[in-house]
Amino acid sequence: MQVRLEPTNSALKHDKSIPISYQATRSKALWRSHGDVSSAVARRSAAAAAAAGTLQATFQHPTTVSAACSSFGRAPLEVIALNRMAWGPRPGDTERVKAMGFAAYVEEQLNPAAIDDSDCDRRLSETRLRIKYDAGDGYPALTENRPLVHLTKSNAELWPLARYQTKTDYQERQRPYNEVRVATWLRALYSKRQLLEVMADFWHNHFNVKADSSSESAATFPVYDRIIRDNALGNFRTFVETIGRSAAMMYYLDQVSNRVAGGEGGNENYSRELFELHTLGSDNYFKFYDKRSEVGVEEYKGEIFARGYIDADVYQASYCFTGWTIRNGHWQLPDGDQYNTGEYFFYEDWHQGGTKLVLTRFHPDIDIQDEFIEDKANPENEGKKVFDLLAFHIGTARYICTKLCRRLIGDEPSQAIIDAAVAEWMEHRRSDDQIARVLRVILLSDDFKSTWGTKIKRPLEMIWSFLRGVEAEMLPDGTLPPGEDDDINHWGDIFYRVDLSGHRLFGWPTPTGHPDLMSYWANTNSILHRWNMPYVLAQNWGGAAQINLLNLVDPAWSCITIVDRWIARYVRVQHQLAGAQGADRLPGARERPEPAAAAA
How far is residue 47's CA from residue 29's CA, in Å, rounded to a whole number? Predict the structure, then answer.
């Protein structure tokens, strides 16, 4: 499935008579990718508001944006790295990466298990998430600021929350998913394993599950999140099957009910998205062809592949997956508590027997011996054969490597870097560290090092960058900020406000995941929320974030001075704007030294 939502731009009209002025260029730097600056500052800048129409039109054209950003000069490599391999620099990060060297930083981030992340782990253990509900049928009322207790639990431990036989409130059923949201925020802000966080976000969008789409997906979402994190830098073939066996994905795309025996005749929803979104991609879909012999083959380094896929491949693959389900107590499953644990189960009684044809290769001039898919001795292997065909296909390599380059470099990556990533992907299809190897090729490329200003940060990325840059502290629920009269749900408030931006963490409604193109996010609604959210977060009533702005900004500064100094703090780009001398160091650095080192 592919869904494209066009941004609504009716509120802003581009006046071609207005040049991209000094003020407009400065305003772009406030919220442009790889250099987001506090929208609290942006709100105070009349120049930013006056330039909104110009910015709106400009951001529809990546080449125009890149040219405009070049007026600041290309960012130092450590700045590029910390805005693409991480959610933005924290104070001291740029100096650390510069001192250790970019290549060493890449290797460090590609080995997250070796990074000491004890500070982030401490924050995860100390945080509290409020839960409150009235008494109901079979359970008492509750008000509690509870630790994140579900993150490490197994499917079997979480499963009772998915079953309506368990008497509990809806909030308890949603609690595991909400704990993952809190943990994701804390890791984004404080984890030193930043590339892992960026890639976890990438794969959550690639294998998108709307976490609250069912009680089963919500309850088991901590397990799904661990699958993403455990495989984010590993082997794609292992990854895609583990995802396919998860309760969250099976319920989201209806694979749990894919059975022939019992009258359904199969369910193709999961198989459709497996082809179209998880592996080959829609560019390899030949929807107007009914016969594989009409599609042909393609060759890559001496290996011959079926050229794309047709509907028949989806249907046949869905038959291969019949019987792949979850131990959920369904009345057709065997009796016993062991068949109601929320764990993967292959039930042969639901499997469609006979031979299947998936991605078979037909060519009039080439003698190709394809094996029909059938395994009478172990029919579960038929689904595994489909994963083999898809994960090892050249079309999958091109599709996913293009997405990786788009995420880490820019909206329009060069064909040369895509080809290099594809070559590495195919060569190491069976390597345990396949994805990490491909990432190394992308990150160490000249394209990565030299590209600047060709992406826009999506709302959550911008907010995380802002909070990292101002060293925000996230208050546990039950902690009263200065001037607060009531004990409020800080996390619930911040989730509500951020969701209004359209960037809903684990809440994108369709299987496509959040868009990753500037053309989608550069619209009036998104820009407005970019300007409002940091301002809101800086207030006592803004949610869980506590920010000491008075320690970072001199109230005597003019708006222009504030903007210039925040630009320098965030992007560390040497530029010639008025009043920029010394702008890389804020007064707060004099009163309270930044971590690791002073700004460069």
Answer: 12
Q: Where are the alpha helices (DSSP H) in 32-142?
A: 39-43, 46-50, 52-58, 62-69, 77-84, 93-100, 102-109, 118-126
The two beta strands, 142-146 and 545-546, are: unpaired
- Give dist(CA 98, CA 82) in Å, integer: 11
pLDDT in tens, 480-525: 655 555 556 788 888 888 888 889 999 999 999 999 998 888 888 7
Q: Write the single-letter amino acid at 205.
A: N
Contact in structure between 279 and 399 (CB atoms under 8 Å): yes
Structural contact between residues 216 and 177, judged by C-beta atoms closer than 8 angstroms: no
DSSP β-bridge partners for residue 133: 142
- Residues counted in the chain: 600
How many H helices and E strands in the chain? 29, 8
Strands 473-474 and 545-546: antiparallel
Structure tokens at 108: 């460090």
Phi, psi of 298 (to 5 degrees): -140, 155
């684990």: which residue's tokens? Answer: 506
Tokens coding 445:
């490329």
> What would the two tokens of residue 508 be?
């994108």
Backbone φ and ψ of 487, nearest 5°: -80, 110
The whole-angstrom separation of Cα 141 and Cα 147 is 18
CA–CA dist 284, 302 (Å, integer): 20
Specify the long-range contacts of residues 489-495, CB closer than 8 Å, at least 24 apart: 489/130, 489/132, 490/130, 490/543, 490/544, 491/129, 491/130, 491/178, 491/181, 491/182, 491/543, 491/544, 492/130, 493/542, 493/543, 493/544, 494/185, 494/537, 494/542, 494/543, 494/544, 494/545, 495/178, 495/181
Cα 329 to chain centroid, rounded: 33
Residue recorded with tokens 């976490």: 211
**In Å, how far from its chain's centre is CA 464?**
13
pTM metric for this prediction: 0.83
User: Locate tokens 């359970």: which residue?
Assistant: 139
Q: Which residue has the tokens 């661990």?
A: 226
Q: Which of 288-292, 360-364, 525-529, 545-549 has the lowest mean pLDDT?
A: 360-364
Neighbouring residues of 108: CB distance < 8 A, sequence distance ≥ 6:
100, 114, 115
**Token reading at 81:** 């790295």
State how far the Cα of 522 lies from the Cα of 508, in Å rounded to an integer: 18
Question: Cα-flanking dihedrals φ and ψ of residue 473, to 5°?
Answer: -110, 130
User: For residue 299, what is the DSSP state?
Assistant: E
> Is 167 strand, coil or helix?
coil
In the chain, the amino acid numbered 403 is K
Question: Which residues touch 316 (CB under 8 Å, ≥6 apart)?
Answer: 356, 357, 358, 373
Q: What is the pLDDT of residues 420-449, one digit of tens each?
A: 999 999 999 999 999 999 999 999 999 999
The whole-angstrom separation of Cα 576 and Cα 94 is 21
Instruction: For the beta carbon of residue 137, count every other beta carbon within 10 angstroms.
Output: 7
Distance CA 32, CA 42 (A): 12
Per the listing, tokens 């509990």 go with: 168
- With beta carbons less than 8 A apart as the criterion, state whether 233 and 196 touch: yes
Measured distance CA(333)–CA(256) in Å, rounded:
12
Say whether 139 sits in a helix, a strand or coil: strand
